[in-house]
Amino acid sequence: MRRPNARTHAAVRLPEPLEPRRLLCTDHAALDPAEIARLNALPIDSPAPFDAERITGSHGNTSPGAPIESLTSTTILDNGPTSNRIDIVLVGDGYTAADLPTYAAHAQNAASNFFNEAPFNAYKSYFNIHRVDVISNQSGVDNDPTQGILRDTALDMGFFCSGIERLLCVNTTKARNAALSAPQVDQVLAIANSVKYGGAGYPGNDMGTFSGGNGSALEIARHEFGHSFADLADEYDYGDGATYTGGEPVALNVSKLTAANMLAQQQKWWRWLDLAEVDAFQGAQYYQFGLYRPTVNSKMRSLGRPWEAVNAEQLIISLYRTVRPIDSATPAGAYGATATFFVDPVDPLDHALSVQWLFDGQPIAGATGLTFDASTLGVTSGLHTLQVRVSDDTALVRDPSAKANLLTQTRTWTLDLQAPALVGGSLQFNARPQQVAASFDDNVAASLQGADLVLTNLSDGGSIVPAGAIALAGYNVATNTATFAFPGLPGARLADGNYRATFADGSVLDSAGNVLPSGSAFDFFFLNGDANRDRAVNLSDFSLMAGSFNQAVGVQFDDGDFDYSGEVGIADFAILAASYNKVLSPQESAGRAVFAVRPHAIGATPMRRDDELSDPRTGLDWI
After folding, report:
1. 3-state secondary structure of 469
2. What CA–CA distance (Å, rounded) separates 487 from 471?
């Protein structure tokens, strides 16, 4: 019933019914009188009269009724985030507005006492309990203390369900609707305003009922919790000589196998057969013969008994189907050599979960605390993996698969100790406005700003474009490419020249804090009016411009839009005229790019010289 994503179970409880299937509703026909008499005569510690779904063949009275909205919800046991806790919701029935203090006391008593025995006394911290205040028009519930007494209550609870005096039924749909007022729902317990002994279980609805004013009734809720939460089967039989002839039951606490066969086949509770109290005892899941249970007696056979080893293991495993061993940890990502990491495990009350930090898959000696300082590794280069493994090493669970997959959780980070590399750059002369692009082999977006780009014009004695004239125009995280524009320059474009692009020392960092190596650079050139990018302004460029003259759709620099206005006109002719017959010779010192390429970045290719471009219309000065 977990919102918004229901908790899934490893197995589904599928009891073999002894009685004909009947709907659960006091308006419907009850069981055969002899069956009613038999169930009513069972001893007080028998759980048989409370298994509502088995007795009645129904998941409860599911008539929808009106949704219950705007109910007050109070968390009375808060052990952590609902996303990583088992949330039990208590809903009351037969409590008027004046009875709410009584209901609060009943709910608090349940929250305090539900976990007072193993294994829940150790794992109480894995639960939250929420109380939803449901107000009824009348106090009490139906058929209390005797049959025939009816009361107007919100959840339709009542004793003598299907004629069984102790069977305390509820409208499961109404109870569920009320429970949805809580922050989260995993299990629902409906509390009746009564001192009469009784309860019921609805495993298919993750729901149980009990009498709030009866101290013994909470034990019924525990037994039913074994069904709905851990998929445990009933271990009792009726002593009527019935023999089971079906297939192997799904539930892990009952079996057709003898202890010897169980051990030989490594099935069911074979790992526990070394304990003196564990064996294969005949009589389980309603059959006197043909099915076996792990112990002489347990809570799944008689109320008031311990859970015993096999059932306790399944309860703990079921805990970990909802609660993961790690509550929180350092967010995933790449970190540098000086980062400190933390992990916050869930904390059982009687022992701590074990913690082990690992470097590149190998345990780090002595690293078993809740924090880890990466600088203690003494590693200065490369990409590495840091992990923390948290596990519950309780001796109450012996199933190695469960221990590895449910009772253990790992978090992983990248320890990035290598500098980012510049892997390419170019003048995007066809972009509007004019831009320079620089590509890296890692994400450096967070550190970049326009002033980091240093552009030196090697053709006029090494003048530097003012840092204030350059702006970061964008960053493509898919390609790790930054683009820079020049809003502070005349016409937002560069002057003629051969350029070298570098970055200010210490200004470019990856997400782990590693710094781009000093001296990383790439070269490009720009010549106003040079439409075909051949380093000369001549008749060829004039022809390109003339072919687009007076056009304002789809034109760009190599069409003659030299002023980046979006159209080719007189202003562009003036730019070409001012540069006509000008030739920009390659600068020897600017012959090739200087890339600091990581060893693993083998796909990076340095740019070609400006005079080696194979396609002058691409606008790229590197391949």
Report:
1. helix
2. 7
What is the predicted pLDDT for the residue at 24? 31
**Cβ pair 566, 572 in contact under 8 A:** no
CB-based contact 233:241 (threshold 8 Å): no
Determine the residue type at 302.
S
Cβ–Cβ < 8 Å for 430, 558: yes
Evaluated on CA atoms 348, 105, 53, 301, the torsion sign reads positive
Paired tokens of 295: 């112990």
Contact 134, 95 (CB under 8 A): yes
- Angle formed by the axes of helices 218-230 and 100-113, nearest 10°: 60
Which residue has tokens 């490594």? 266
Query: For residues 489 and 474, what is the distance between their CA atoms, to the nearest angstrom?
Result: 18
DSSP helix/strand/coil, 460? helix
CB burial class (10 A; 0-12, 13-18, 19+) of residue 37? exposed
Rounded to whole angstroms, the Cα distance separating 205 from 56 reads: 14
End-to-end CA distance of the chain: 57
Using CA atoms, how far apart are residues 540 and 283, in angstroms rounded to an integer? 100
Residues 130 and 120: beta-carbon distance below 8 Å: no
The one-character DSSP state at 350 is: S
State the DSSP code for 172: H
Q: Can you point out the beta strands (E) in 231-373?
A: 281-284, 287-293, 326-329, 334-335, 340-345, 354-359, 362-363, 371-373
Q: What percent of the chain has pLDDT over 70?
A: 84
Please choose, from the candidates 324, 385, 325, the residue with its C-alpha nearest in 3D space to the C-alpha of residue 357: 385
The dihedrals phi and psi of 75, each to the nearest 5 degrees, come to: -85, 115
Residue 91 CA to residue 135 CA, distance in Å, equals 10
Assigned token pair, 435: 């831009």
Single-letter residue type at 445: A
One-letter identity of residue 130: H
pLDDT for res 55 = 58
- Phi, psi at residue 456, to the nearest 5°? -110, 125
Q: pLDDT tens digits for 470-497?
A: 999 999 999 999 999 999 999 999 999 9
Rounded-to-integer distance, Cα 370 and Cα 350, Å: 18
Does an H or E element contain 409, and which? strand 408-416
CB 623, CB 608: distance < 8 Å? yes
Say which residue the tokens 């007022």 belong to. 181
Give the containing element (helix H, strand E) for 423: strand 422-428
Element counts in the chain: helices (H) and strands (E): 11, 24
Q: How far apart are alpha carbons 559 and 495 in whole angstroms?
A: 19
Which residue ranges in the chain fall short of pLDDT 70? 1-31, 35-36, 38-39, 41-42, 44-69, 588-623
d(CA 247, CA 416): 55
Classify 131 as helix, strand or coil: strand
Q: What is the pLDDT of residues 52-65, one digit of tens each?
A: 665 555 545 544 44
**Of 525, 505, 499, 514, which is closest to residue 612 (Cα–Cα)?**
525
- What are the residues whose beta carbons fall under 8 Å from the beta carbon of 321, sequence distance 6 or more? 7, 8, 9, 10, 406
At 151-208, the pLDDT tens digits run 999 999 999 998 889 999 999 999 999 999 999 999 999 999 999 999 988 888 999 9
Task: Identify which of 333, 335, 505, 509 has the alpha carbon closest to the alpha carbon of residue 417.
Answer: 335
